[in-house]
Amino acid sequence: MDKALLSLLINNIFKKKLSVFIILIWPYIFLFPISFGFLAMGNDFDLIYFSYKRYIAEMLSVGVLPLWSPVDGAGFSLVFNPFAQYFYLPSWILYLIHFITKNLSLHIFLLYSIFAISIFSLGIFNWLKSLKVAHSIAFLSALLIACSLKLTELLRFPNAVHAAAWIPWALYGINEMIINKKKSFLIIFFSNLFILTAGYPYFIVYSLFLFIPYIIFIPFLFNDQNTMRLNYKILQFYISIFLSFFLSYLIALPWLLKVRTLIASLVDRTENNWEFATEHSFFWKDTVGSWMFPPASSTEGWYYFGIIVTIIIFFGISLILYNPKKLNNFEKKIFLYSLIFILFITYFSWGVNSNLFIWSWNNIPLIGSLRTWPRINIIIIPFIIVLFSISLKYLRIYIQENNKDDLNKIIKIFIGIFIFIISTQLIFYFFEFQNEEYWKVWQKKRFDAAINYLPIFIGAVLKSYNGIIYLLFTVTSTIFIITIILKKIKKNFNLIYISILFFVALELFILSNIQWAIPEWKTKIYKIENPLDKLQDGFTSSRIIDTVKGNEYFRDNRSFNVNYPDNYGYNAHAKNFSNYFKRYGGKKKGSVSANDIELVKFFYGVSRDSKRIFLSKSLNHNNIISFINDSIKFEKINNTKINILIEKYDGNKLQLEIYSKNEGWLSYIDNWDYGWIAIVNGEKAQISKLLGSYKSIKIKKGFSKVKFQYKPW
């Protein structure tokens, strides 16, 4: 291709309107094995997230607004379950798609999740420009950030990646508040509202660590007078910022409070649980790995951008140390703020190895009820790219100034950076500093499968990702940077930017696409005409009790499951269930007799009877066996009759007609939660809890019409 034509093509790519389009489509291009369906997404993607979306979409398509999920964990709130992402407005496009196609698929949901990376990248682009970063560098940075292992790792958690998507937009809105109040108010309001409702409570807490110090310091960073004095303009800024954030919290607060109440009632979700809060570790080796050697880092907190990005950032840090006057005052303040913030959050993410975290756990509410704190590193991603943007700008300035002495100095700096990085990588490689849980278990499974499936040459390349590949990219990246310095390129810097993107994409392509991928979807989704009929069939069929990792309604052929997911079942139900069954596999505990386990299965509707409704003389029972014996005797003596109006059952409500010679208690073996009401013969009845978990009401003798309904508001 002619050089002039190539130059013209590259320069057109960097034009404003085309830049936005490329930023939006770049994640789909970079992740094409996933976005084109050659690979599927594993981990929590299917059972924890998609199943709820599909269930909601199906019910909406038949005119039912689903608020309660009867299909998992013996009944669970849907509207207040963060995984369902109920009030996240962008997610409702999925229900529109299902309404049109009648088949919301896992792949469509994956494309929706990838679009969150596009949103994040576009937000970074606008935020960097509001920080006075040049258009071309902001554009490059937006593309690079879409390749980072932190963002691509989050695809297994669709709610998390969508919550993260709006973080840079909120930062952009905060910057714009200094200039354009009307525009910025809306940007902040909607960005924070989407963070609050995206269904990932962890990131709500993390955002406080990000936004509070940023809001405090950003007006002073923009202040050209280099003073920390509070003036009227800054005070007005704080008031406007407060109102925009406050309004979004005010709107989301009713739902968030209900979510917190729900979470407090779940197993292992009580506050100040040290083991739960520190379940995933992240320490200095993980941090070093995130900058230079990914195999040493835990995926829960890693944020590797590619070694060429690390090299350029280290150059910027060196520049601050040996020639700080080179940077203008604003960029110096932004650079130093970003660096300090990264160091602060990094130390906090070390969990049990951080005195800062230990103090926070003991003194700050919510810290103890959340786990996997290495994920807080998501909030340093924007500031890493700020360091890169400023460092790249001054590398370009040095090259364009063409001062021989300065160029010789920075070549020496890059050689020093190379020696430091390659030495660290060699130590990590030869001493096998690898994250055991991921790289020697989960990642090994994926790489072994890919190596066996792909041609020998590609398999050999994949094997190098145990460490060798990063050394090779360190060498080639350093040679590339020194070459462009020696050649003293003053024009066509956009070609250099494209080359940097090529280095990053080439290095991270395999990891980003394969890190949580599986060959195909495990859950098979089929288009059906009337999902409500299937739900009613499931209600009248036997429940199952096998191991669950989420909502397995679709994977289990639309059967209702009594078992509960890890750390996410109602605590009272989990205790009742665990008295008789092992958590994994649903097998009976050795201390439980064969006769007793049959009675328990009868209670949970696991037997052929598929029973859901029981009548008993009393609710004063300490265990399921005692209750079932009471119920069997009571129903036999009183010649009870139970008629479930199954055609009116929709998951939110259950209507039935009963007859009993004597008064007693009617129990519906479905979990109780705030919002459930009962109506008996047209009058509201008080709901009591059987064994602390299941819905029960007092009934009079004779014929009664009963209605249970979930009305959370």
Task: Describe the fold and architecture.
This protein is of the alpha+beta class. 57% of the residues lie in helices and 8% in strands. The chain is built from 28 helices and 13 strands. The strands form four sheets. Strands 6-7-13-9-10 form a five-stranded antiparallel sheet, with no helix packed on it. Strand 9 (676-680) and strand 10 (683-685) form a beta hairpin. Helix 2 packs parallel to helix 7, helix 9 runs antiparallel to helix 11 (181-197) and helix 16 (307-322) packs across helix 20. The longest helix has 33 residues, at 232-264. The radius of gyration is 29 Å and the shape is elongated. The relative contact order is 0.11. The mean pLDDT is 91.
What's the structural blueprint in terms of helices and strands?
Blueprint: H1 3-13, H2 16-30, H3 32-35, E1 40-41, H4 45-61, E2 68-69, E3 76-77, H5 92-101, H6 106-130, H7 135-145, H8 149-153, H9 158-165, H10 167-177, H11 181-197, H12 201-222, H13 232-264, H14 274-277, H15 284-292, H16 307-322, H17 329-348, H18 355-363, H19 381-401, H20 404-430, H21 436-453, H22 456-463, H23 468-486, H24 493-514, E4 517-518, H25 531-540, H26 571-578, H27 594-603, E5 613-616, H28 624-637, E6 641-644, E7 653-660, E8 664-671, E9 676-680, E10 683-685, E11 688-690, E12 694-699, E13 702-710
Antiparallel strand pairs: 1-4, 2-3, 5-8, 6-7, 7-13, 8-12, 9-10, 9-13, 11-12
